[in-house]
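tool_call: predict_structure(chain=1)
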Amino acid sequence: MRRYTYDCGRYNFASLVERLFECKDLRFIHERLPKHIKYNELHKLGEDNKTWYHKVFYEPINRGESKVQSLYENFIKDVVSHKIECKKFLYQKSPTFRVHAPGNIAVGGWHRDRDYNHSPHEINFFLPLTPAVGNNTIWVESEEDKADYAPMNCDYGQFYIWDGANLKHGNKVNDTGVSRVSVDFRVLPYDKYDVGQAKSSVSAGKKFIIGDYYKLYER
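tool_result:
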C-alpha cells in the first residue's frame, strides 16, 4: 500500500463535484440533502450505493455528459498508467462514489473485494475529495488475515494504491462531524483477465468483462 500525490489543480475532481451538488465545501455535503430525504435512510446496509448522492453523481455519467467522467479518463491515461507496471490493463468504467457522512459507515460490512466476486488480481485506487482521516476514512489490515486495522489517512491531492481485493477493510462510524467524499476504482492487468471465469459485481450486477464493468487501456 502506497500513497501518492497528484496535481489537484489540473485534476480538479473536488470542484467539479462541488458544482454538481451546489456545495461550496464537500465536507458538509450531508447538509445539502433535500428535505424529503431522511438522513437515517443513509444508514441502511445494502443501500449505501443507492442514495440521493449517488443518483446526483451518476445521472450525468449515464447521459454521457459528465465532466467528472471525462476527467477520470484523463487521470487514468496521465497518472494511473504511469503508476502500474503493465502497459495493457483494464480499468473500472466509472469510479465508485462514496459519501461517508457523520453518523454513517459509508459501506456495509468488513470485507475483502474478492468476497464480492472481484478478481484477487485487481489493484485498488482510493482518491478522497476531502480530508480522509481517522473514523471517516477506510480502515485496512496491513497483511492478509492480520486484522491489525489502521486508517488510510489521506488529504485531497493524494491517493492510495492498495490491495483491497485481498486485505480486509471497512469503515467505522464517522464521529468526526464532517463528511468524507471520495472516489475509488479498480485496475486489472490484462494478463490476469479471464473472460471465461468472469462473474458479476454484487452491488451493481455488472459483469467483470470489457464493455460492462471494465474498459481497456493500452499505451
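agent: Helices lie at 13-21, 52-63, 67-78. Proceeding to next step.
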